[in-house]
Design brief:
- There is one protein chain.
- By secondary structure, this protein is an alpha/beta fold.
- It is built from nine helices and ten strands.
- A six-stranded mixed β-sheet has the order 6-7-8-3-9-10, sandwiched between helices. It has a four-stranded antiparallel β-sheet with strand order 2-1-4-5, covered by helices on one side.
- Helix 3 crosses helix 4 (124-148) and helix 4 crosses helix 5.
């Protein structure tokens, strides 16, 4: 049974039909890279998975259980809960500039834990005690996450004092903080100078070694080839080609895939 299964995912913006019946599955621990020209639907696909956009049609299943069905109605609270199954690392970091690297991880951890424990419904003394206990536990977890991405020494630094690569690594740690089933990356290196790209890619490779299930939208063809278990080529809102990296890169069957790769021959 597939760990993640997408069935007939459709999304339109007005008259623009962006996703046209996406069917896709992946196994637990797999790394899938999504490649293709700009405008092909890659980012919209990720945003629909993370419920930043509402699919018009389709179903999303995780580990055999229905997570989302576009034919059903969900409250905002239910959507927030479903969103936690996916972690999204944005192209441009989206760190809170007024908080340190440590606080950027700690605050979402605390807010989520407070919500789950329904601390606001407790009497004042119990609420204060439970919040203190949760915050103490999360401080340890936040520092461990920074350590895992090699930024323990930058815990007290603000985003404006971090390099782009360091900001992106903080963003990865923040996405991991809530233990998502699937970690998604939207062009994680496109906002970085070439010399900073390597440090982010090394963290993603480390996550692969840890067995994380990941979907990566990327223009880094060499990276996609060497880190992925499966590669998807998207064009015009459909999955034009999908398979093992060696099959998609070395023997593409679709004329659209062949045309796309012709401009990347030296890189891949």
């Amino acid at each position: 049974m597939a760990y993640l299964e997408i069935l007939n995912l459709n999304k339109s913006f007005g008259e623009n039909h962006v996703l046209k019946g996406i069917d896709f599955s992946m196994e637990r621990g797999e790394v899938v890279s999504v490649i293709g020209s700009s405008g092909g639907g890659k980012t919209t696909f990720l945003r629909c998975l993370n419920f930043l956009e509402k699919p018009d049609e389709g179903q999303i299943l995780i580990d055999g259980e229905l997570l989302y069905d576009a034919a059903l109605s969900y409250s905002d609270a239910e959507i927030r809960e479903k969103r936690l199954s996916f972690g999204l690392v944005f192209q441009s970091f989206h760190l809170f500039p007024q908080y340190t690297a440590f606080e950027n991880i700690l605050i979402p951890l605390n807010l989520r834990a407070f919500e789950r424990a329904a601390v606001d419904k407790l009497p004042f003394r119990q609420r204060r005690a439970l919040k203190a206990e949760i915050m103490a536990e999360n401080k340890v977890k936040a520092m461990e996450l920074l350590r895992n991405v090699g930024l323990e020494a930058k815990a007290d630094a603000y985003p404006c004092h971090l390099s782009g690569g360091q900001c992106q690594r903080v963003a990865i740690a923040r996405a991991l903080a809530l233990s998502p089933a699937i970690l998604c990356f939207d062009e994680p290196t496109s906002a970085l100078d070439p010399e900073l790209t390597g440090e982010v890619l090394r963290v993603i490779k480390q996550l692969k070694q840890e067995g994380r299930t990941m979907i990566i939208v990327t223009h880094e063809m060499s990276f996609a080839r060497h880190v992925s278990d499966k590669v998807i080529f998207m064009a015009d809102g459909v999955i034009e080609e999908m398979g093992a990296p060696e099959d998609v890169f070395d023997n593409p069957q679709s004329p659209k895939t062949q045309a796309f790769f012709s401009s990347f021959e030296e890189e891949i």
